[in-house]
Design a protein that fits this description.
36% helix, 4-stranded antiparallel sheet, 4 strands, 23% strand
Length: 118
């Protein structure tokens, strides 16, 4: 998808649809993809991003690929700052998350979603 402000909602709606078709909770997946696509928009010069949902042995993973080689870092947020808490929030919501540099350039940031409550 092109990296524009409206792409955040497009990605969120798409992930909601995919998760619903899988019979899984959509809330955390929507928060995760919103944060990751927002980070692509704010912190990279990538013209496009790719969002993918995959099922792995450990559960469901949401991935966002972009063309920027700079890896995201979780920084301690100042209580007065208006931003900078997204990855810390993401870490609190998911089982685990990480970033994988891609051989041809760019990276994939992924998050393993928690199991849905019964």
């Amino acid at each position: 998808m092109p990296v524009r402000a409206e792409s955040i909602k497009v990605a969120r709606d798409w992930v909601e649809d995919v998760m619903a078709r899988l019979g899984q909770d959509t809330y955390v997946a929507k928060v995760v993809v919103s944060e990751l696509v927002t980070n692509v928009l704010r912190h990279t010069g990538s013209a496009t991003a790719t969002v993918r949902v995959v099922q792995v042995d450990k559960g469901t993973v949401v991935e966002v690929f972009d063309a920027c080689d700079v890896l995201p870092v979780t920084a301690p947020a100042d209580l007065m700052s208006e931003g900078g808490r997204g990855l810390a929030m993401l870490g609190a919501l998911v089982k685990e998350w990480d970033v994988q540099p891609l051989g041809g350039g760019g990276k994939a940031v992924w998050a393993l979603l928690p199991e849905a409550a019964p």
